[in-house]
Design goal:
heterotrimer, A mainly alpha (about 45), B mainly alpha (about 500), C alpha+beta (about 160), B: about 500 residues, mainly alpha, globular, C: about 160 residues, alpha+beta, two-stranded antiparallel sheet, 8 strands, about 40% helix
């Protein structure tokens, strides 16, 4: 089996920060949805 | 004669690598088998023993007959990938068919390919009485298929060789996350398993809070994680996400769907502390804009039509469905019976969202955000060219991990793939209409299958004509592989038959 | 006179029976609820089906999902009615068949905004039961045979690899 050169994979701390940034992005999308829902339903009434 | 011999030679190499894929699928079946044993679902244990054994018989027979040290060339790699998805679905269908919850083997095969391609259209009958073992297997096919069956095999069962890269590309992943494709495959698995632990834990906790029992919450958390992160859309209950009657639970799933729709290269950059990529990346910008506008217009239409009047309803049904459609997941917080009641405009919005898709090199389907962005920029470039003086040299760039200059080849490839997707959506729609379904509903269902989404207006059912089941199977398979591998397979078969 | 009175009471009973049948709410299916959601919105209906999944307890009551044979719908029941349910549908059980008198909501603002039923009462009309899953001898034999065949082919393939 050919030796695979070890490439730099991110460490644990960076992994965690990355996950938090991604959760932030997903949270932002939910906030966009919530704002639109509230605004549209407010004007519908 | 010489050419036919070389074609046979190609077949032998393809057969050898297919053997490895069969063994991988068989080994994966040990997971639901173990669960079934643990829960004393003994009939289910036998179903998976049969599935596992048949996979190994086929796999080892191919390895025994066609042993080779030769590496795969491009054509062989593409053919291997195209056929391996069909073989995996065939083998995956065996335990499902033995469960007794499918009217015929075609339905079980449909379910398996819907699983592996992370579509999520389901033909399971009496899902609420399906065993935990079989239900886990349905969701596991989405986890394996989402990561890529070939990627899974590459990570753990293939030795380093350039042919492996050709398999990787054939599986519609033309983005190398890391220079070495085996490390790329392992990184994809590292991200997936990390999120598996965190995501399942989060869903488990939310499930307990909303009133599920610990056992049910754990099972649902694991299965729904796999379906959400891999944007598959199978659910352990017949009502999909409606079962939970909970806005917080559905929003927890939105988190996972969005994460699953991100390009794995983006995961790498963010996990490498390159947070600037978060807002410079063209795919994220396109996705955010698309979700904003599509949901905005959908919300107005739903309130104007008197379908929903509260923010609750708009979030739970409208927003959730937009995200489910756009990420290609296919979870439903409304019944299939309710889609036609929504009206034509919201359905049209959903069709657009499904058709566009999520990130390239992610688990989603559809045209994908990078291509949409390239085409939009190219259009803007052409308009600008016409408005500016003739001597002006216009260079348009997009930012995707790094700045890329828009060139003719990039635009051409994006347009061709986009055209292929749209053509497939239309052909499937016409087939559905030809078989008696209303055109708009047929267009919705066809787009859902071809873009590997899984939302259904009710056309997908055991009573659906067999021909339509076959058409959707071909659409799901072709859509997942983004055409190239499938075209090469047909080209290979035609050449083989003609002897040229 | 007495004969008139004797025939009057049965007639009265028949009239009362017929009028109560006319006043009773219709039994509906999920498909009918979705198809006529606007006309049935806010109306009291009778709904029957198998309880599937679990009884989900919340602060506002208990959610059950009831399947009428083709589709399921969520029903919010009173906490005191949850105790009437013994079996819920799963791999190992057929759930209790229940009948509820409930108000149908086309877009329930109180909860998630989706279609649901708010039950005023619940009646268990048929008890559920455990399901026994027997393994047929054919399946057992097939499993043993293919497993042996898999071991043999595996052994042969590995033997050839080592050669």
């Amino acid at each position: 089996m050919m030796r695979i050169p070890r490439e730099r994979l991110p460490g644990f701390k960076h992994n965690l920060l990355g996950i938090l940034w991604e959760l932030f992005l997903a949270g932002l999308i939910i906030v966009i949805g919530a704002v639109i829902s509230l605004v549209v339903s407010f004007f519908a009434k | 004669m010489l050419l036919l011999k070389s074609r046979l030679h190609d077949l032998r190499i393809v057969a050898y690598y297919l053997g490895k894929i069969c063994i991988v699928v068989g080994i994966a079946m040990l997971i639901p088998l173990t669960l079934a044993l643990f829960l004393s679902e003994f009939s289910v244990v036998y179903d998976f023993v049969i599935g596992f054994s048949v996979s190994l018989i086929i796999g080892y027979t191919l390895l025994f007959l066609y042993r080779t040290e030769e590496d795969l060339n491009w054509m062989q790699g593409m053919v291997t990938v195209a056929v391996s998805w069909l073989i995996a679905a065939f083998l995956g269908a065996i335990p499902l068919y033995l469960s007794g919850h499918f009217a015929c083997f075609l339905d079980a095969f449909f379910e398996a390919i819907s699983g592996f391609t992370t579509t999520g259209l389901s033909l399971t009958q009496d899902l609420d009485h399906l065993s935990y073992g079989h239900n886990l297997w349905r969701h596991l096919t989405q986890f394996l298929g989402g990561q890529g069956i070939v990627v899974f095999a590459i990570s753990f069962f293939f030795s380093g060789a350039s042919g492996v890269f050709r398999l990787y590309v054939g599986e519609a992943r033309d983005e190398r996350v890391l220079p070495n494709v085996i490390n790329t495959a392992r990184f994809i698995w590292r991200v997936s398993l990390s999120f598996f632990l965190l995501g399942s834990l989060m869903l488990f906790a939310v499930g307990i809070i909303i009133g599920l029992s610990p056992g049910q919450s754990l099972f649902d958390a694991v299965t729904l994680f796999m379906a959400a992160f891999d944007t598959g859309g199978f659910a352990p209950h017949s009502q999909s996400i409606l079962y939970y009657h909970s806005l917080p639970y559905s929003m927890a799933l939105v988190f996972l769907m969005v994460l699953g729709a991100l390009n794995f290269k983006l995961h790498y950059e963010l996990w490498h502390n390159n947070r600037g990529e978060l807002f410079r990346n063209t795919e994220i910008r396109t996705f955010l804009s698309s979700v904003f506008f599509l949901f905005f217009f959908m919300a107005i239409s739903l309130t104007a039509g008197g379908v929903y009047s509260s923010a609750n309803g708009l979030m739970y049904a409208g927003f959730f469905q937009i995200i489910s459609a756009h990420t290609g997941t296919g979870f439903q917080t409304i019944s299939s019976l309710q889609f036609p009641v929504w009206g034509d405009f919201p359905l049209g919005i959903l069709i657009i969202a499904m058709g566009l898709g999520g990130g390239l090199c992610s688990t989603t389907g559809g045209v994908k955000m990078l291509r949409v962005s390239i085409i939009a920029k190219a259009l803007s470039q052409d308009i600008n060219r016409m408005l500016l003086p003739g001597s002006t040299i216009l260079v348009k760039k997009i930012h995707h991990i790094k700045d890329l200059v828009l060139n003719e080849r990039m635009i051409r490839v994006s347009l061709i793939i986009t055209f292929c997707y749209i053509l497939m959506y239309i052909v499937g729609a016409l087939a559905g209409a030809g078989l008696g379904y209303p055109l708009e509903l047929a267009f919705f269902e066809s787009t859902s299958a071809a873009a590997n989404v899984g939302l259904s207006v009710g056309i997908t059912s055991p009573e659906m004509p067999g021909l339509l089941k076959l058409i959707y199977i071909i659409q799901m398979w072709t859509g997942r592989l983004e055409f190239i591998a499938v075209f090469i397979l047909f080209g290979f078969l035609v050449a083989f038959i003609k002897g040229k | 006179m007495i004969n008139y009175i004797k025939s009057f009471f049965p007639a009265l009973l028949i009239i009362l029976f017929l009028s109560s049948a006319v006043k009773a709410a219709p039994t509906v299916s999920v498909r009918e609820l979705y198809a006529n959601s606007k006309t049935l919105d806010g109306q009291e209906v009778v709904f029957e089906g198998e309880v599937i999944g679990e009884v989900i307890q919340r602060s506002e009551g208990c959610w059950i999902n009831v399947h009428d044979g083709t589709e399921a719908i969520g029903v919010l029941i009173r906490p005191q009615d949850a105790g009437l349910i013994e079996f819920t549908g799963s791999y190992t059980c057929r759930g209790d068949i229940v009948r509820v008198n409930a108000v149908f909501n086309r877009a329930c603002d109180t909860h998630t905004g989706s279609m649901d039923l708010h039950a005023k009462d619940l009646e268990r009309i048929k008890a559920g039961r455990k399901i026994e899953h027997f393994v047929s001898p054919k399946k057992k034999n097939a499993a043993v045979v293919v497993l042996l065949a898999a071991l043999i082919t595996g052994f042969l393939a590995l033997y050839r690899k080592n050669e």
